[in-house]
User: Fold these one by one.
Assistant:
Number 1:
Amino acid sequence: MIAIIDYDMGNLRSVQKGFERIGHNSIITRNPKDISNASHVVLPGVGAFKDCMDNLRNYGLVEPILNVIKSGKPFLGICLGLQLLFSEGEEFGRHKGLDVIKGKVVRFPSELRTLPLQVLSRGQNLAPANSQIKDFEDKLKIPHMGWNDIKIERRPPALSDIQDGSYVYFVHSYYVVPEDKAVAATKTNYGIDFVSSIWKDNIFACQFHPEKSQKIGLKILKNFGDTRG
């Protein structure tokens, strides 16, 4: 059974539906016993870094999360669930995270530039047909929202049979900067190259949303669910 951690941050049902579609049973829970007894654990999240950490503490979920990670069970972080694993976040001040992965979470620079073919929305070029490249460069927005590709640096079980350059769905204004660059599993370009997923021991965590990434995302969820601890 897969435990999806409920701490009142994010659309947990969409994650559960993703697992249902590929035949894996899951429960949405904040019960430490359920989390401890699960075969796999998922930490999703949408919202502000500090608010999410406050909720994890208030619900008494920090210790169960750290314990299940130490146990070696497959652990998946999604979006803010990736960021919370890091030492600290810089959203609205500096706030301590779970400190499982040494590093920090920082905001995208205010001015981002890229070439038209590097950023896609629903698989389509964002640049109007009559636009100049420079005009399009100046229009990159924060948050980074829509479809973008992943460049595979290392291949954890969750990325088995996932093609390099596959497109997945992002919604975020902050990105992770690990101290140990070797934990990066994928990188993505949005004006700058950033780490879009990490892999360390039993942990795979991604900035993108596999539950919103159609066939590629469902394959990632299936790979995770099939992973043995």
Number 2:
Amino acid sequence: WDFNHVGMIEATPNTQDADAEIAAIEAGAQDFEPGDEGATLFITDITDLDAVCRALPAFGFTVQSAKLGYQAKNPVTLNDAEREEVEAFLEAIDADDDVQNVYVGLAG
């Protein structure tokens, strides 16, 4: 109830000239977020995931991964101490072999 089911595409630019905003608009993505180490996370409607994946290379991006996932509707901001505590909890959950994916509603 607190998450949107979305397509998530992680892509890296092939050149310095690749513009994530233009690529997102032209490829049909709903939104984009700058990611780690120059990668960009493109957010799509679940029905548009494949089409956006196929369109991104024409705008100078190489798709690294594409999957269905969940994005928080109301992200929560935590102070440093709270964030540290939550991250330790999430690491403990992630260490369990039975856990495949964990989605959290944290901002930033």
Number 3:
Amino acid sequence: MVDVAPRLLVINTVVWRRTLATWQQCGVADPRAVAHSSPRLLGYDWLHASRLANLRALQQWLPWDLSAAQAIERYAGFVASIAAERLAGRLLYLEQLRLLPLLVADKLAARQEWRLQRGLSVSKRAAGEPVFITVRDVAMSAPANFDSLLDSALSQKQQDDDGLASNGSSSSSSSPSFEAYRKGRLLQLPAWKQLLAQAEADVVELKRKLPPELRRVAAEAEDGGGCAE
């Protein structure tokens, strides 16, 4: 961890040791490799319920198999720095809108595969292409951009469901803004309450498995639930 060493000098020893131990408990085979790719991740409190809610949400709602270890290895930056109401909440919103099948790991690869299956040129945009969504879109898009993306996805999905290039209907395919959904329904949903309860249980279980000297996180850890904006 030579390249990580300068970063460790400004992080309390208990904090970064606890992070590595927590990742290992989550099944990460080489926690130091994750730290090497993004040393700042060592400064977060990974036993915060918001982060574990994000971790569970990625495993639960991404339309491909993803272990906790893989979620950390691929999306640790989002898990650590984005509030659960934003990352996990947006994933749950996609589930409610039945848009989870549009989530992909790589948009370019997904588009090429879609075109290839239909005998189309993989290098040219085609009519009727799905509006694919990545985890980065979910985590990082500004509110207006995220809402616009969902409106486009819903519009294309409606056309596909109707089997028409343009259905000419006056009915709206747009959805309420995520912010309106978050403030109005999200916190009351049984699925949301269950996710948070599971995350709290995960905190207790993971902490129980840590050595005694790592169970109490140092005050220097970035222990907030992440950035909502």
